Each structure stands twice: as C-alpha cells, then as structure tokens.
Amino acid sequence: MDEATKELLGEHHQALAIAAAVVLVAGVAIFSQSLPDCLMSQPVHALGRIHAGKVFFKIPSPKHLKHHLEMLTSSTHFGGRDYEAGKYTQAAKAIEYYPWVGMPADRQVVVFNGTTNKIEYTADLKEDEIPGDPATQYRTNLPAFHAYSFSGNVSGPLVFANYGESSDFQALSSWNVSVKGHVVLVKAGRVALGVKVQLAEQLGALGVLVFADPQDDGSGRGKVYPDGPWRPAGSLERDSAALQHIYPGDPLTPGHAATRTAPRLHPADAKNLPGIPSLPLPFRAALPLLQMLAGHGVLFSGHWTGPSPLHVNVLNSVKYEQRPIRNVIGRIAGEEEPDHAVIIGSHHDAWSAGAAGAGAGTSALLEVARGLGQLLRLGWRPRRTIILASWDASELAHVGATELWHTLHVTGVSGHTLAAASSPLLAGLLKDVARQVPLANISHVGLPGMHSAAFQMHGGVGSLELGFTGQPGAHHANHDSLQWMLRFADPHMRRLQAIARLSGMLLLRLADDPVLALRPTAYVGRIRRSLHDLERLVSRKHNATRRVRHIRHAVRVLQTNAMLVEHDYARLRRVYGTGCQMSGRRRAACVRLRKSINDRAYKLERMLTDPEGLAGRRWYKHVMLAPGRLTGTHVQEFPGLTEAALDGHWRRFRALEKRTGDILYEAAWFLRET
Ligand SMILES: *[C@@H]1O[C@H](CO)[C@@H](O)[C@H](O)[C@H]1NC(C)=O
Ligand SMILES: *[C@@H]1O[C@H](CO)[C@@H](O)[C@H](O)[C@H]1NC(C)=O
Ligand SMILES: *[C@@H]1O[C@H](CO)[C@@H](O)[C@H](O)[C@H]1NC(C)=O
Ligand SMILES: *[C@@H]1O[C@H](CO)[C@@H](O)[C@H](O)[C@H]1NC(C)=O
Ligand SMILES: *[C@@H]1O[C@H](CO)[C@@H](O)[C@H](O)[C@H]1NC(C)=O
C-alpha cells in the first residue's frame, strides 16, 4: 500500500474521510492496461474475497452516516471558493487543478420605463432565511447566481418562454412572438440550463431569467419548508449555465487536465460558455414580472408571453479568473491485478450546505472507505486496485471529475442512488447486487448521465451512477441542509445506509470477482434496440430504409461474437473453475482464458468510442451515448446519426453510418479474439 492509502485508511477512522464536503454520485471504473503478472497471483488472505461483501454489508451505519453528514454540511462549500470542508478529509491526498471559474460580484433585476427610465420594480434576489435552520443563514451562502454565466448588463422588453425548450421557442415563433432583443423569462427544469441559454442566445435574446414554478417543486406539490419538503416562494434554484452538452469541465482546457501549466484557450474561444447573461429568481421575485406581461401576446401554459411594454434590466457581474480546485484521492493497490482499477467517487462541492446535493453521496463514500479500512485490517486485499475519489467543482460544470479523468486516464464511474443509471455492460451486476440490499429498490436502470460523462462518454469506461432520489424541493437551495434531510428525506439514514451498502458491494464485486460481471451480450441487446429506434426515425424522415445496412450487419456480427465471450466463460467454469486453483501449464491456460474474457468484456466500452467525436462537440467520443443536444440531460443513443437524421443531413448521415458500422465491426472482431 502506498503512503496516501495508509493515511487514508489508517487507524483512526475519523481520518478516513476521503473528501470534504458534498454530493452524491459515486463512480466505478475499470482501467485498461492488461497484466501479464496475474499469473503470479498470491494465496488469498485470512479474509477470503468471497466473504468480503458479506462482512462489508454489516459496516455502514446510520450513526456514522449522520456524523459524516453533520461535518459535511456545517458550512457552504462552493467549488473554487470554499476549502474549509477539506479539513474533514485531510488524511487523503489532494490534487489541485486550476480551472477558469467565475465568482458572483454584482447582480440586479430592475423593471423600468424605456422612455423615461423611471424604475417601476426592483426584484429582491435574496433567498429567504428560514427561522430555526442555521444553514439558511450562513453568511457564506451564495447570492442568486448561475455558474459560468456570462458577465453582462442588458436591457429590453420581457418575453415568457415557458421552459425554454426548443419546442417552446418554436411555439413562440409560430405566434410571431420574437425573443430577439428581449429578455427571456423561463421556468426551471425539463432541459439543462445551458441548453435554455444557448437556444435563447441563438435566437438573439439579450438575457435569461429563470424561476422554479411552485407547481413543479413548491406549494403546488405540498407543504413548503420548514413545514414540508417543498420549495418556498422565497427560495432560489442555482445552477450551471455552462453548455455541458458541448463539453463539461474547465472551459479553457477541453480534452486535457487544467494543471497550472496546461495550454489554455482564450475565454472568448471556449465553446461551452454562454454569451448572454442569466440569473435565477425566487418565484416571489418572478411573480411581478409575470404579472406585467398580462394581456400582452398569447397565453402560454397559463402565462402571457409578452413582450412587455416595460423594459427589464438584467445586471449579472461575474469576476472570472483561474482558481484552484481540490480533488481528494485515495488508492488501495490491487494484489493480483494492480494495473486494473475500479474508481468510486462522489463530489464534495455544493451550492450551499448541500445535504442532499453532495453531503449524502460523500457520506456514503466515507462509509465505503471506512468499510474498506475494516476489511483491510481483517487481512483482505482487493484483487484489483481501488481508487476512491472525492471531486470538487461538480456544480460548476462537473469540473473535478472531468479533470480527474484527464489526469489519470482511468475508467468508469458509479454513484449512489436508488435511481440508478448504468452502462448496459454493468446493469446486470447492479440489479444483482441491489437484490441483496434492503431498500435498494431499483425498478428501472437508466443510462449514465453527466456525473459520469467524463468516464463513460469521453473515456469509454463502463460507468454507473447511483443517485439519491430525494425530493427536488431543496435542489440547489440554501435549505438543502442537514435539518431538511433529517426531517424529510432520510430521517433514520436508512436510505443512505442502503446506498453505502449498495455502492460498496458493487465496488467489491468489480474489484474482487475473478471474472468481471460485465455482459457484452446485454450491451448488444441494448444496441439492437437503439438501432431499431434509429431505423424508425430514418424511415419517418426519409423514404429509404436501407440507410443503416452497414450498421445492421455489424450489429449481427457483434451479437454473434458477444456470445463467444459467454461461451468462453462457460468453458472456463466447466474446465477449470473461475479461481484457476491449479498449477503449472493448466493454471497458465486458465489464467490466460480468464484474462481474455475480462479484457474483452470491459474493453468493449472503449471500442465503442470514436476518436473523431461528435460533430460540433468532439469531446463526446462515445458512438452510443451522449447528452441530447437539445436537452443536455437526457441521454441520446446513436447521437451523431440521430442528429444527422433530424437535420435531414443525409450526406453526413451516410458517411457517419459507414464510420459507425466500421467501429462496431472492429468491436465485434475484438470480442472474437482470444
Ligand atoms: C447597467 O445598465 C443599466 C441600464 O442601462 C444602467 O442604469 C446601470 O448603470 C448599469 N450598471 C452597471 C453596473 O453597468
Ligand atoms: C405571423 O406573421 C405572418 C407573416 O406576417 C402572418 O402571415 C401570420 O398570420 C402571423 N401569425 C399569427 C399567429 O399571428
Ligand atoms: C412610460 O412613461 C411615459 C411618460 O410618463 C408614459 O406615457 C408611458 O405610458 C410609460 N410607458 C409604459 C410602458 O408604462
Ligand atoms: C419499490 O419500487 C416499486 C416500483 O417502483 C414500488 O411500487 C415499491 O413500493 C417500492 N418498494 C419500496 C420498499 O420502496
Ligand atoms: C417519399 O416518397 C413520396 C413518393 O415517392 C414523396 O411524395 C415524399 O415526399 C417522400 N418523402 C420524403 C420524406 O422524402
């Protein structure tokens, strides 16, 4: 074990803390570089690997989880600004990066008469303090702010654009309501903030104001905080305005780590930064804006579109500079396959105290670390290397995880939640382990999203995300606090315990199973379904249905060859047993076969990446998965081809169909090799 790990998992489990402050997604990844010396594997120790999961199951405790959460939510921890939280995790190794980060300087939203300049209304952008919840009163709490928002001062008439989705702007256009030269007011949700701002900017809007509709997460849903979990009218929902569907992470160093000396883009050339200002508003401050639209334009989802006769001034002053962020990393060297690693991680930054929005995930990660520490003391050693990562600046644009990826070139991610998302490669394992954990009720496994984008969609590492499906009523607000959590989300820490158990047991399976529980056949099943959807889209848009012939054939070969991996697995079990517990040449043959099965299974994910990346957003390399360019959140399968078809760009479609087919053929041939 290296020094950092010794420190990390030392005698005093208080010092186990990997990270510092907040959030929830953890990662599981497997990294490449195969290993000839697994031929020299050692006898298993006092605590056999087979039993490690059973021992681990008993470790995560509500008492410890609550203690972690108390420590982690005892201040504000905004990425690139607050480092206090790091003290809770000082034992682990901190790695710094220097991304381009903006901090809020000044802001105002004012309604005025465009002719006389007389001010009619000044919006109160302060978030209400809630009596009795000290977290809502921290002086360090952030003002109304969108991370990576454009620093500017604009004025114009107001237009309401519903959720600011592409279809909403189309509706406005069909009613002849232009947003050009106007300030746009939208509701939060449905699509990523970066997408709303980008669409508004492309249509010539001057700025964007965003409020959370009480019907979505406030009084329309139930009692508001502190009487219930839902959002009060005086609460803000902060968010990142970065265009993460173009690329996440540091805007100035796409594709590589934001080290101190890394070459950087000029901020004006960074393609994931918006070009118009935006601000969040509490609903209470948005109400007068909605009222001044009354009678102007068209009724749209219960509100008038405008434009308003009065003008709105939006001042959003942001001070940008290169600032340090801190990822905290721990490592346990694998005993038999040290060059293969599994990563588990979570982010520790937050908009506020961040109980659900970071604290929960980090607490679970800390319990996993504590559990691993106990296993180590019992003599257990993982077969593969385990990396525990607590990354920073996730709320800005998933900066910490992205820079981590760029540095380690490691693989995969898993997070913590009952709303689970996974690469099809890992989904079977996830369901299998979830069945052993009370309350880990996974009825639906989605596709991995932005938390693991750096691993899954850029690096081609099978990833899974487990996220706490708390109520959205405290999302990115000051009252996402310990009290909110203990009163409404997880009073007895049982759900968090389930997450700690589930993520730890998944980690142990991935780290210890002689044969990785990754299923190429399941992946191919998913690819076939996606292909079917693509074919339907193409035939709807275009008369020819033979446009995906190349891919269809490649998928058939892929299916056949994925079965070969299953056959080899069956042969391994039948002829040798997965433990390869024999000697001499027979053992060498067993180990060779086992390694081939493992390599083919986990490297399939990497084989599904295209070094060229997607048109217009080359950072996204995966041919099967990318965030939708019009949602920024929902995963689009066959993203490049789907976009070409939607654009009716058939020449691009044909070229890409050939290219994607070739990539799938290569993957298929790779699955065949033994
Ligand atoms: C912002 O613009 C408004 C309206 O044009 C102007 O009154 C105000 O002084 C400006 N504020 C700053 C800080 O530039
Ligand atoms: C929008 O403007 C066009 C062209 O001026 C006109 O033909 C159409 O009727 C208008 N539509 C609406 C809904 O007002
Ligand atoms: C702006 O002020 C002028 C002068 O008082 C007035 O005539 C006009 O109606 C006002 N505009 C609006 C939109 O209220
Ligand atoms: C598990 O999920 C199902 C389907 O979503 C739901 O009906 C059931 O109540 C859940 N059970 C628990 C214990 O949460
Ligand atoms: C499909 O073909 C029909 C007749 O052959 C034609 O009228 C129609 O425009 C075509 N549709 C598309 C989307 O190309």
Automatic annotation (TrEMBL):
It comes from the Eukaryota. Residues 327-405 form the Peptidase M28 domain. InterPro entries: PA_dom_sf, PA_domain, Peptidase_M28, Peptidase_M28B, TFR-like_dimer_dom, TFR-like_dimer_dom_sf. Residues 154-241 form the PA domain. GO terms for molecular function: carboxypeptidase activity. Keywords: Membrane, Transmembrane, Transmembrane helix. Pfam families: PA, Peptidase_M28, TFR_dimer. The chain crosses the membrane at residues 15-35. The keyword Secreted does not apply. The keyword Hydrolase does not apply. Residues 550-671 form the Transferrin receptor-like dimerisation domain. SUPFAM superfamilies: PA domain, Transferrin receptor-like dimerisation domain, Zn-dependent exopeptidases. Signal peptide: none annotated. Belongs to the peptidase M28 family. M28B subfamily. PANTHER family: N-ACETYLATED-ALPHA-LINKED ACIDIC DIPEPTIDASE, VACUOLAR PROTEIN SORTING-ASSOCIATED PROTEIN 70. This is Zn-dependent exopeptidase. It comes from Linderina pennispora. The lineage of its organism: Eukaryota, Fungi, Fungi incertae sedis, Zoopagomycota, Kickxellomycotina.
